[in-house]
Design brief:
Layout: H1 4-27, H2 37-41, E1 55-58, E2 62-65, E3 68-69, H3 78-87, H4 93-105, H5 111-119, H6 126-136, H7 142-148, H8 156-182, H9 197-205, H10 213-224, H11 233-243, H12 248-259, H13 267-281, H14 288-300, H15 318-330, H16 335-354, H17 365-374, H18 383-405, H19 417-424
Antiparallel strand pairs: 1-2, 2-3
The chain binds carboxymethyldethia coenzyme *A.
């Protein structure tokens, strides 16, 4: 592989290495964070102990990809986002075409993957099927092969990039195949190599798309979920597994297993269920007044409002804004969309008055499920697979950069409870 992305990275990597080396050499003993007892017992929340340059989540701005707010990137294709995540720049037309060509060269999923998936129990979770396919493809890893042949440390990133492109090229086909097999949608649909990644994915899912808006929805979905810093469960897991020099197939599959957890990738299902329950209860879209009463009833019974609040953000999530805008443009009359829209008008004020949630505004999950539902993608268990196709871009770009920088194997020090007690005099 000698694509333009590889060439661009080859030009950037010496500078990145030099920067990291001189920071460690000149300032290696300076303190950038500390850890409290509460953090050690509480998921290391807020401890600054890893580097991730691909993206940043700002409380007052939301997701920033390489300095660009995600709200400014909603018209970009997922392939452009991968290029941006890795290099810090958006690709030129020629660079984009080149990368798309590389994806297309690996878009056909080998038959042995389908054999493995078809042998799985028919009620297997779609995420288990998706991850099994990725693991089964590990036999194709260029990184593992070259490592065994004695690859130089300085070349690790090249092999990681090659595996990553192969994986990103194949993931839409794998994910679409899982959908059609698991939910008995009929034969698989072959990739259309003339299409961009999001459009091709939409086409392979096989849902009716007379207006082409489902393609737009898939492009947007893949773009918006691409990355979320380095410390979240999937990115952090991928980072840790990759740090052992496990190849990208192992590392991404591990990260996606984390994404499958109810505290990570499942929230949009919960939000959509909440909206559909409202539709059922009120036999259609409730009025703003009805929603207000309902929200108070729910809060007074000690339950949260799904889709609202965030651990970091303190404004409306720009990813919600983008999904909301697409729904408003394409199907403003849809009752599910109308509920999402009315909740957005009502809930922030209710939560402000309630006074508990630090962020009363909607997060990304408040609206994405409604779009999928509208377009006929109604198998909730599948939604995390869509998320995974997108988030693989973030995990892989972080992994390639880490291999380029020669980031060490992850090995924080654990301590015993008795040590903590002695330390704090408890
Ligand atoms: N409805 C009601 N109460 C809420 C709330 C909501 N949507 N969001 C937060 N609160 C409450 C919390 O339960 C907490 O109450 P207690 O003090 O009684 O425990 C209090 O407000 C303070 O919480 P917080 O610091 O504002 O929020 P956290 O960082 O602890 O949690 C989150 C963030 C997302 C888990 C939380 O806002 C929530 O449960 N939201 C609803 C579920 C949801 O939308 N999840 C999707 C998250 C998407 C993402 O993370 O990307």
């Amino acid at each position: 592989m000698a694509g333009l992305l590889k060439q661009k990275l080859a030009g950037q990597i010496p500078g990145l290495r030099e920067e990291a080396k001189s920071l460690v050499k000149g300032h290696g003993d300076k303190v950038i964070s500390e850890v409290t007892v509460a953090q050690a017992f509480g998921g290391m929340r807020g401890v600054k102990a890893m580097i991730c340059d691909t993206s940043l989540v700002e409380p007052d701005k939301g997701l920033i990809i390489r300095g660009r707010p995600i709200g400014d990137l909603t018209e970009k294709l997922p392939e452009e986002i991968f290029w941006l995540l890795l290099t810090g720049d958006l690709p030129s037309d020629a660079e984009l075409k080149d990368l798309q060509g590389e994806y297309q060269a690996h878009a056909d999923v080998p038959q042995y993957i389908w054999d493995v998936l078809e042998a799985m129990a028919p009620d297997s979770h779609p995420m288990a099927m998706f991850n099994t396919a990725i693991l089964a493809m590990e036999r194709e890893s260029i990184f593992r092969k070259r490592y065994r042949e004695g690859m130089q440390k300085g070349d690790y990133w090249e092999a990681a990039l090659e595996d990553s492109i192969r994986l990103l090229g194949a993931l839409p086909g794998i994910a679409a195949g899982v959908y059609r097999l698991r939910f008995k949608k009929g034969d698989r649909i072959a990739p259309d190599k003339a299409l961009d990644c999001g459009a091709n994915f939409a086409a392979m899912l096989g849902l009716p798309d007379p207006t082409g808006e489902f393609k737009n929805c898939m492009r947007l979905y893949l773009t918006l979920h691409c990355d979320h810093e380095g410390g979240n469960v999937s990115a952090n897991t991928c980072h840790t597994v990759g740090s052992a020099l496990s190849d990208p197939y192992y590392a991404v599959s591990a990260g996606l297993n984390g994404l499958a957890g109810p505290l990570h990738g499942l929230a949009n299902q919960e939000c959509l269920r909440f909206v559909l329950d409202l539709k059922e209860k009120y036999k259609g879209a409730p009025t703003e007044e009805q929603l207000k009463d309902f929200a108070w009833e729910r809060l007074n019974s000690g339950r949260v409002i799904p889709g609202y609040g965030h651990a970091v953000l303190r404004v409306t999530d720009p990813r919600f804004t983008a999904f909301h805008a697409l729904g408003g443009r394409v199907f403003p009359e849809d009752e599910v969309y109308q509920i999402v829209d009315r909740l957005f008008r009502v809930i922030p004020d209710v939560l402000k008055e309630h006074g508990k949630a630090k962020n009363p505004y909607p997060n990304v999950d408040a609206g994405s499920g409604a779009l999928l539902y509208h377009f006929g993608l109604r198998e909730f268990d599948y939604y995390t697979v869509l998320f995974g196709v997108s988030r693989a871009m973030g995990m892989l770009s972080q992994l390639i950069i880490n291999r380029a920088l020669g980031v060490s194997i992850t090995r924080p020090k654990s301590v015993q409870t008795s040590w903590v007690k002695a330390q704090v005099g408890a």
